[in-house]
Amino acid sequence: MQSKKLKLIHLGILLCLSVFAFSTHSAAQQKDGLLKIYFFDVGQGDAIFIEAPNGNQVLIDGGPDNMVVQKLGETMPFYDKDIDLVVMTHSDADHVTGLIEVLKRYEVESIVYSNIVRDSALYGAWQEAVGEEDANIADPVSGKVIDLGSGVTLTIVHPAESLASQKMEKTNNDSVVLTLKYGEMEVLLAGDIEAKAERQIILNSNLVEGAPPQGLNADILKVGHHGSKTSTTGEFLYEVSPQVAIIQVGAKNRYGHPTQEVLKRLEDYGIRYYRTDTDGDIKVVSDGENYQIITANSNLLIF
Ligand SMILES: [Zn+2]
Fold first, then answer.
1. Which among 46, 102, 176, 248 is least surrounded, fewest beta carbons within 10 Å?
2. How many domains does the chain have?
């Protein structure tokens, strides 16, 4: 018999013990001990869906249109209309647009985003959708840890300080950057940050008390800004030292993403990369030790 379970999510537990509870209604929780991460092919934009082994679900960004709704429909059970946590990394159209429809269609328990001031109709629509959602809102600041349960955590790596109420129009370098950790497996989700924020993150990672000795080291890097040449510097790749990179990017996009410069940097560092424009949806499955990368064309198991 499936009982409604209370789960705890700890936002900023190190700083202020602001602990709140949320409930999960997913009856389809699979007790297989596996973390699943879906990098959806939503064209030129980001949309990342995470399902912890206990069934807790997180959506990070929503892509440039409502394609994410279709992707969620294909991934979640048809009766599951709850998402535990939505993270909006920054308010550019290719990240926030689909999230507005997600908030309308799903019951979202918690929302993490920088509540900046920005003069844009789209951002206004997002703010309105957030206002209509009866969700817990949390301000992202580096060091805060979100406990998804069953040993899975999301740690906020960037921004270093709250951006609430700050007026800004260019927000790439203020993207929310997160580390997803399950056992020995780590994924760094870099939003749309560019070289400037990569540098700040490297500097801050040396200052954070209790940071693991390997610093920013991660198995998988979701590269910043769709493979733009202004992101994914050699210095950053050296610090993160991923085995695998994932590029969320649209086919034949007008920005020329991903750039040859970034692809070459990845190759120079011996990093295998996947890209949604050519690989389609990219699914990562992990038991906390090993992980598997599944696309329509390949199935790679990494130990
Ligand atoms: Zn973007």
1. 102
2. 1
**If you average pLDDT over residues 235-264, what whole number do you get?**
97
Res. 20: pLDDT tops 60? no
Distance CA 64, CA 42 (A): 7
**pLDDT, position 144:** 93
Residue 92 Cα to ligand 1 midpoint, Å, equals 7
Q: Is residue 290 part of a domain?
A: yes
Question: How far apart are alpha carbons 196 and 230 in whole angstroms?
Answer: 9
Tell me, yes or no, whether 4 lies in a domain.
no
Dump pLDDT digits (tens) for 124-138: 999 999 999 999 999
Q: How many CB atoms lie within 10 A of CB 28?
A: 12
**Ligand 1 is a single-atom ion; what residues have CB below 5 A from it?**
94, 192
Express each pLDDT in 165-181 by its tens digit: 999 999 999 999 999 99
Per the structure, the complete domain to which residue 180 belongs is given by: 9-15+32-302
Distance (angstroms) between ligand 1 centre and the Cα of 135 equals 25
CA–centroid distance, residue 30 to ligand 1 (Å): 32
Using pLDDT thresholds of 50, 70 and 90, give the confidence band for residue 208. Answer: low
Return the pLDDT at 276: 98
Rounded distance from Cα 89 to ligand 1 centre (Å): 9
Is residue 25 one of the residues assigned to a domain?
Answer: no
Q: Report the separation in Å between the CA atom of 203 and the middle of ligand 1, taken as the mean of its atom positions.
A: 24
21 assigned to some structural domain:
no
